[in-house]
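COMPLEX REQUEST
Ligand: adenosine monophosphate
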Amino acid sequence: MGLNVIMMGPPGAGKGTQAGRFARERGLLKISTGDILREAIKEKNPTALAAQAQMDRGGLVDDAMIIAIVAERLGRPDARPGFVLDGFPRTVAQARALDELMARTANSPLIVIDVAVPEQELVRRLGSRRICRGCGANADGVAATSCGCGGELIQRTDDDQSVVRERLKIYQTSTKPVLEYYRERPTFRVVNGAQPPERVAHELDTMIDDAASAMSGERAR
Ligand code: AMP
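STATUS: Structure written out below.
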């Protein structure tokens, strides 16, 4: 049975880092819609370039486009053992589309994790976040100047203060309702993302394993 995880949470909650680590450790496919879009922009893909202005402003990209990207990615064989979604779904329409997709492919239920962090802490974190121009990895703190891969560390255009405020506003209006959409499911969990990353990782692993075994218990009955 595949392990299908959605890592939810506001920008700066650390969900990308945790999603990457968890996927690596469990041999699952990580799908980050933000990374896919940034990669496609670098490759000058016309559809992605059309979405770039929206991204730079801190807004959301068109639902239909994002749903098509995720549907295509989930349809590939490497998604079969399970996946970790990072940055998707961000709207209730996307969450509904994902449910329809999962029902069609008779996949295991989704385990939904909300990485919760207070807004003040998010603004602080995003202001000092740097990413590698070469490999796209996240680096903490303004002090570092280069990545382990040798690439230059830069600030994401959308991590600028005013854009951060806009992204947090959009999170409240469009993405918070997605948490309500999932909240009553037996596989929904909340982790305190304000803790040190190793602590978050430990709690998150326990929560996901617990949700997965609760699910297989349900199925066996
Ligand atoms: P992220 O790296 O997840 O913060 O995503 C960066 C930007 O890509 C977001 O601010 C949006 O403009 C766009 N984006 C990524 N994922 C989605 C999504 N699921 N729905 C709409 N826009 C998205």
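REMARKS: The chain has a mean pLDDT of 91. The radius of gyration is 17 Å.
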